[in-house]
Design goal:
Number of helices: 20
Shape: elongated
Largest sheet: 3 strands, antiparallel
Organism: Copsychus sechellarum
Cofactor: Ca(2+)
Strand content: 5-15%
Pathway: Protein modification; protein glycosylation
Radius of gyration: 41 Å
CATH class: Mainly Alpha
Bound molecules: 1-deoxymannojirimycin
Protein name: alpha-1,2-Mannosidase
Number of strands: 16
GO cellular component, one term: Golgi membrane
Strand order of the largest sheet: 1-2-3
């Protein structure tokens, strides 16, 4: 160890040192115990100091967090490290300057926060002075602003496509004065209803009878009003009847009010056939872009329903969250054949109009899946589980739960200008199985279509099933083995049976379901099957039969139904369903279903019109009677699909 204290002050050499402890008593290599103790004390004091500094000095990261929130807004950014470097030897002076500026900034910030706080308090006090209505109005104005912005974003025009041949949108008056009068009567029924559309729209006024509102149908509550379904469903009927002012009124309402960004859980099927079908038909008839845009917006909201393990859509979807589910009552969580099988027409049109294959692919996927499945006795059961892809309960029906699936197989073929032969084959196969297993003649000679339930035929027919008469007639041309005559005859027999179900009641209106069992023929037995809710199926079949045969009895039967509806269902605010068609003093259900305007009155009007109004070679009616034009797909990419070869 060479400490200065141990070196001689002069240059003279000292004798060699004995560096042992005894030889040099003041320079020991070891420390005494007391010295060690003192050293230990100093060391522990030092460690304690470091600890204290670590925990108790201000946390610079907290300063940083505070700065992050405000610095960009309130504090002009000052880079102190740079300032220090530049000042070089004046670093100490620079640090003092920084601290001063920092204090100033803090003070300035404190003042600003205080001022903001006071301002917010003042504003809150002002708000509290306002009435509830004023506050609500302000909120509404803000909301409207946001809505307008969104609307602007959503309303981009869609790519133009060549419109199909739109023939027979307008036609002349029927030459026969009697028929003209009947047609005008149907139009008057409709027009009377439309007058009621004016301020403030019937449903919003509770002093009226609760008709027209579909207020008991939550699955149709799209947008901010319960009126949506009735207005959209009625539009094309108005157009066809030449009620253009009322049509424009509806268009205006849709433009301003029909909004799909809502927290509503809706039926995918019902929204498709009534809203999308209605909007598409209104677009094709009038050429007004708003209908096409709304249809596409809404369709986009239905797409999340297809996010299932199999691609078979859920029955219901929430328009906002996109969460889907099935009806609680459906067999083992199944989706329903008539629901997921009644999307094809509208979805093909959506792809056609937008150029986006997504819609087309969804419905073709469903078809492919169905084609691969085994069918008991060649029949399609009504229930299919969207998770497992397996059939639920073996129940087959051409009425409720099954009906429009068969209808859309036939109409897919017709709508494709008869190119979609795959759909026609599926239809022919299905109809053959139905004829074999479900169609029977009653003891009294009435042809009826029963229901297949777990290996047993239930000899009961629903009002809904009566549409099949029209379907058989429509599919007669182009049928397998040239059985056109046979299917036209089958259609006529069903029309006759369904007319009997009307004729055997007191009101001359058909019950919901009727039996052919135990001496009963075309009559409802159970009390809960005796109602008539303004359904169209029987009149629909009369119209198709009239178009294909021109047998005057169909117009006669249609006129009987018109009179009965006018006599027994007309109420002060519109038309209502009746609870018992066998009772001479009927009671009302207080609901005017939207399909009364979309279908029942439209089919009646067409029944008393010339055939050149919406000719069946050019138009195909969706299951809610919304006419969609035949697509000549040869020029589009859809025609590349094997289904169209
Ligand atoms: C309509 O909404 C459609 O026709 C659907 O296919 C089933 N039936 C109702 C009217 O009865």
């Amino acid at each position: 160890m060479t400490t200065p204290a141990l070196l001689p002050l002069s240059g003279r050499r000292l004798p060699p040192l004995n560096l042992g402890a005894s030889a040099f008593p003041h320079h020991r290599a070891t420390l005494r115990l007391s010295e060690k103790f003192i050293l230990l004390l100093i060391l522990s004091a030092f460690i304690t100091l470091c600890f204290g500094a670590f925990f108790f000095l201000p946390d610079s990261s907290k300063h940083k967090r505070f700065d992050l929130g405000l610095e960009d807004v309130l504090i002009p950014h000052v880079d102190t490290s740079k300032e220090g470097k530049n000042l070089g030897g004046f670093l100490i002076h620079g640090q003092g300057h920084d601290e001063h500026r920092h204090r100033e900034e803090e003070e300035r910030l404190r003042n600003k926060i205080r001022a903001d706080h006071e301002k917010a308090l003042e504003e809150a006090k002002e708000k509290l002075k306002k009435s509830r209505d004023e506050i609500q109005a302000e909120i509404q104005t803000e909301k409207n602003k946001v809505m307008q912005e969104l609307k602007k974003k959503d309303s981009k025009p869609l790519p133009p496509v060549p419109l199909p041949n739109l023939i027979g949108i307008n036609s002349g008056e029927p030459a026969d004065p009697d028929i003209r009068e009947k047609r005008n009567k149907v139009k008057e029924v409709k027009m009377m209803m439309m007058m009621m559309w004016s301020y403030p729209f019937l449903c919003l006024n509770s002093s009226f009878l609760l008709v027209t509102c579909n207020r008991n149908h939550s699955f149709l509550r799209v947008g901010n009003s319960q009126m949506g379904a009735t207005i959209v469903d009625a539009l094309d009927t108005l157009y066809i009847m030449g009620l253009h002012d009322e049509f424009r009124e509806g268009q205006e309402w849709i433009d301003k009010n029909l909004d799909f960004s809502v927290n509503s859980e809706v039926s995918v099927f019902e929204v498709n056939i009534r809203f999308i079908g209605g909007l598409l038909a209104a677009y094709y008839l009038s050429g007004q872009e708003v209908f096409k845009i709304k249809a596409v917006q809404l369709a986009g909201k239905l797409l999340p329903a297809f996010n299932t393990p199999t691609g078979i859509p859920w029955a219901m979807v929430n328009l906002k969250s996109g969460v889907g589910r099935n009806w609680g009552w459906a067999s083992a969580g199944s989706s329903i054949l008539a629901e997921f099988g009644t999307l094809h027409m509208e979805f093909v049109h959506l792809s056609y109009l937008t150029g986006d294959p997504v819609y087309y692919n969804k419905v073709m996927h469903i078809r492919k899946l169905l084609q691969k499945m085994d069918r008991p006795n060649g029949l399609y059961p009504n229930y299919l589980n969207p998770r497992t892809g397996r059939w639920g309960q073996h129940h087959t029906s051409v009425g409720g739960l099954g009906d429009s699936f068969y209808e859309y197989l036939l109409k897919a073929w017709l709508m494709s200008d008869k190119m979609d032969t795959e759909a026609r084959k599926m239809y022919d196969d299905a109809i053959e199985a139905i004829e074999k297993h479900l169609i029977r003649k009653s003891n009294g000679g009435l042809t009826f279509i029963g229901e297949w339930k777990n290996g047993h035929l239930e000899r009961k027919m629903g009002h809904l099933t009566c549409f099949a008469g029209g379907m058989f007639a429509l599919g007669a041309d182009g049928s397998r083995d040239d059985k056109a005559g046979h299917y036209l005859q089958l259609g006529a027999e069903i029309a006759h049976t369904c007319h009997e179900s009307y004729d055997r009641t007191t009101l001359k209106l058909g019950p919901e379901a009727f039996k052919f069992d135990g001496g009963v023929e075309a009559v409802a037995v159970r009390q809960n099957e005796k109602y008539y809710i303004l359904r169209p199926e029987v009149i629909e079949t009369y119209w198709y039969m009239w178009r294909f045969t021109h047998d005057p009895k169909y117009r006669q039967w249609g006129w009987e139904a018109t009179q009965a509806i006018d006599k027994y269902c007309r109420v002060s605010g519109g038309f209502s369903g009746v609870k018992d068609v066998y009772s001479s003093s009927p009671t009302y259900d207080d609901v005017q279903q939207s399909f009364f305007l979309a279908e029942t009155l439209k089919y009646l009007y067409l029944l008393f019109s010339n055939d050149d109004l919406l000719p069946l070679d050019n138009w195909v009616f969706n299951t809610e009677a919304h006419p969609l034009p035949v697509l000549h797909l040869a020029n589009t990419t859809l025609s590349g699909n094997p289904a169209y070869r």
